[in-house]
Every structure is written in structure tokens, then in C-alpha cells.
Amino acid sequence: MNQHQQTIATQLRDHLDHELAVHRRLFALAEEKQRRIVAHEIPAFTQLLEQEQGVITEAGRLRLVRDRLVRAVATIMALKPEATTLTTVLERLDGSLRDQLAERQRELRSLLERLRQLNERNLLLIRSGIGLVRDILQSVIGNGEVRNYDRRGNHGQLTTGAGQLVNLAG
Question: Can you give the residue ranges of every domain in the chain?
């Protein structure tokens, strides 16, 4: 590996370190969001969402920079830049820098997978909470159509506008 390749590959390694730090911050925010969801601390959850937006923007920017760095390494190595990925660049590198980059790539993939799973759990918690609220409201207010029961337990006449637990019409 020549000096120019070494320099840009080192920049790529340092960039991956920075990208890992940003994604670790996203993971920490996602964990904190989960705690706030479970504790039903909506104002704190909303603040975390606002904080997360800036970190997500930074992660997107870093992804673009990483793509440019990978293309630059590929160009120096005489690879086709349009079909080049970090994995294909790693296949062509040698030495300890290759191992360092490969380790950071594995860490980033693992972290992104764990972040995806955590975000899916958070989404499930939010959907469950919304479903619970909807079910409680439907039990209290009703869905607009209630069939009254007669003395024998048979369905009687259809009434509209009445709640199941609370009769808002009467």
C-alpha cells in the first residue's frame, strides 16, 4: 500500500470511529426513549425526539462522507468507484489497517442492527400504549353502536350515541 492509500485509509478509519460514536449516541437516546415510554413521561420523551433529530442528521451527513471516502480509496486503488463498497475496498487492502477497518465495519453493523431492534421495540411499546388508550376510550365512550340486552340475555334494540360504560347521551 502506498503512502497516499495509507493516508486516505487512515482517514476512513478515523471517520468510522466518529460514525460509531454518533450511532452509539443514537443508541443511548433510543434506550432513554424506551425508559420514558415505559414510565409514560411524554414531555421527556418529546425532548428526546428533538435531541435525536440532530443526531440523525449528523449520522446521515457522516454516511455521505463515508461514501465519498470509500470512493476516493477505490479510485486510488484503481477500482470502479460506482460499484465500490467498504467491503470491496477491504478485500484489496492489506496489513493492520485492513484489520482495523474490518473491525470498525463489524462494530458498525452490529450497532446498527441492535439500534434497529431497539427502535422496533420502542415502536411496539408506543403502538401497545396507543392501542390500550383506544380500547379504554372505546370501553368508556363506546363506538357509537351498542346493542342492549333484554332480560333473557338476547340482543335487544340497536342504540346509537350511547357509551358502553358511560351513557353520554343520557
Answer: 3-160
3-state SS assignment for residue 93:
coil
CATH superfamily of 3-160: FlgN-like (1.20.58.300)
Interval 45-85: pLDDT, tens: 999 999 999 999 999 999 999 999 988 888 888 887 666 88
CA distances from 51 to 4, 26, 46 (A): 38, 9, 9
Comparing CA positions, the residue from 108, 117, 139 lying closest to residue 16 is: 108
Place of cell 485492513: 98
Across 25-57, b (16+ Cβ under 10 Å) vs e yields: bbbebbebbbebbeeeeeeebeebeeebeeeee
Q: At 139, which amino acid appears?
A: S
pTM of the prediction? 0.77
Give yes or no for a contact between 69 and 8, defined as CB atoms under 8 angstroms apart. yes
Instruction: Tell me which residue has cell 480509496.
Output: 73
What SS3 class is residue 119?
helix
